[in-house]
Model the fold of this input.
Amino acid sequence: MMQDDNTDQTSEVHDTASGGPTALTLVCPIRGQLKVRAKTKDGLRPSEEALRIEAIRHLLALGYEKEYILVEPVVRKIGNQGRNSLRADLAVTDIPATQVKALPVEDRVNHCTILVEVKRDNAKAKKVKETQVEPLLAFGPPGCLAVYWDPIEQRVFWHDQKKQTQEGYLAALPGKGEKFGGNPKLTYERLQETANLRELFDRVEDNLHAHGVDKQARYDFMLQLLLAKLFDERSGFSQPTKPLRIQDPKAIGLDLSVAKDQFENLLSDVAAFYANDLPKELETTVGVSREALADALEVVAPRRISHSSRSALQDFFMKFAKDTFKWDLAQYFTPTPLTEFIVDLANPQALELVKDPALGSGDFLMAAHERDLGARGKPKLYGADTSETAAQVAELNKILHGIDQCEIRIEDSLASIDGAFSVRTTKIKGVEQVNGRYHLLICNPPFGSRITIKDPTVLAKYDLGHEWVRDAQGEWKRTDKLLKSQETGILFVEACVRQALRDGGRVAIILPNGYLGNRTPRFQHLREWMLRHTRVAAIVSFPRFTFKNSGADVSASVVVMERREAPLATSAASDDYPVAIELIERVGWQAGQRNGPKTWVRDEEDGSVILDQNGEPTLDADFQDVLSRVRSSAAGSRFGWLAGEAPASISPGHSVPVSQIIADPQRCLDPKRLSGKFLDVRRTIEADPYFLLGDKVQFVAPLTSAQVRQRTPGNLYRYVEIQDCGPGLYSSVEMRGWQLPDRARHTADAGDVFVGGIWGSVSKWFLAADEPNLVVTNGFYRLKVEEDYLLDVVAGLCSEAYAVQARALSRGSDGLAEVTAEDLMSIVLPRVTDPNTRRELQPYIDQLKAGHTSVKSAVEDMIAAGKLPHPPVSARSSHVVLV
Done:
């Protein structure tokens, strides 16, 4: 790189406070911690600095010592009376770097054995090699090597005996003490790891496009290349020093016609090996020129694409499958961090039989395979889906992950619940007995009120396909009468449990929170069925919109259960055991947006993104902390398979006794109202003088439809909508009676308190002023508060402690989850007992009565100062956090 020596070389590295692109915190093995500014669109590649560190780590891995590495050395003073200089990004020296730096500039390059040029992207690679890398090499001493390094391509340059510049792959770079011998044949152990498969194959596609290959032919060839590379690496894994069949023909001087013949011979073996796994037959001849093939192999041959991270594989696969097979895969995929968390929670073990009966792309099975179980082996994997496309997606995903032990079927898991792929039937003393086949079922089923099963032959196979009624003792009993329809998600709960081995088979299933908390009878007897047939070991909730990319905007939880040996007659007969309850608040991406950007761990002081020891950003997510808490909880102690390898340093996670759940007539399993956050807030309030909201207010019922029709159409009203309100704030709009919407169901007297009645609006409330003909939407509850408690109620409504309780008590799966009047009455609020504090707050109450609104900020200041007895609960980090 050509630079003026008077230029400030450190400004880009250290200036992170001036705004602009995302800043990063890097750790360099030579220079320690660095603060740098990101320049690229994704905000995660800071000029050349992260790549420079990546190159340093590679040199260290080859045995070169950091004391012999120079950063940004001047290679030669040139032009402008020596004021300009030719610099390298890195140099490996034959004497300690400190000694080299002490020499005159013109003598330093004589001690450089390797010179490295780093660039932030690949866009101008050819020009940079010609104008910067080759000049570096020309100024170097005899035998010197030059390296070009960007995010996609790393190449080695040298002079042959005729002083001609030669170029090869990074595997040619010798380790410390090794003799340079040009391009060696590539072996498995010499392949470079690939961080971004998508960028790698994008470069292949760009090269093919430059050769005039049309779009369909490009995709056909890239599929051949992908499968051939995976097959070749798979074959070479057991013999890591044996030359691979895929080589860079230009680097080793192989005739291009011979290279093409060899590649097509490899394709014949690939087609035979994957014949039963591909959606269409693989062609064994390539439809591109030998020159285009050679350019593609130059890019791909030196890289290892197997054993990439699951997130890299998923990102690549979603684009590749869409381009190649016209598959839109968003509906099939669950985000990688989420699948890995759920699989780790369910804890599949070596040689266990693991099935996903609603397979989709097979991500749960892929995550189960990727778990490191050492020499004990891998789980045996099974999957089924009604969709042929889903099965094909899963098959290709299986190939990409290099998985053998995985049987995938196109099958209706609900209709075939009594089939051999679901259960095992045996006879003991002439009596036929049915048992599940699998140690673990992991499932993200299709759910929703509109996704139902109506086929009576399928419904008849399920307890939950029948009507249930309460008997004289109030216990739920199954009748012989079939339902007209049942939600698919509910049937999948039963299907998963029945396919699990009796007395210890496990189920990890994602369910909407409405299933776990709604009061509708079908959800109540679903929960009763679950508690009779299983022990619920853990429930972990996710923020709303976590599954938005796959078309679901509900809040959901993963429920982990252990099947009982025999079902109970009633859940009340259950032994007592702990149930782990956790709420995940941060998932590593902005859950409120479709295809929301990822969020990263940042330095609290300057906001820079902190990179790990591998130079990669860390997702800002709760998964590992929550997993550790569950494993170290009382439930982890009770269920040994749940504990896994619980970190000793983690304090025990939150659990509730199942007897507490069973004591609730509705058997509520909603993790919001069972959460430690909710229960801690209530315990803190109840430690001091407090009251139940329902004891100090009267609920006023909304107008009936008949009463609404009695309004005079021409009269003027002031109407309040929920979006026109905030904490203690409201504004009204003048409307004629005929203009009022049907939801305008509340009248209002001066002093009435209105509080939001759904999950998304629990922080909205206001006190009605003396305003004639004020009408309020039915999204609020209308309360008449005892005068002596008005100040206490208002102070409570301003607190996050109230909002936490209201959100936790809401029932449903989305932003319209309802807080019932009964649940609202159960909220506890502290009594403000200090006379001075009451006197300080009273003027704000008087202002509210007069129509002025500024009490919330005053209450917040008093809570922070410790003047009020309300717990100082931190506000939610995002509007998608459930409690």
In short: The longest helix spans residues 215-236. The radius of gyration is 33 Å.
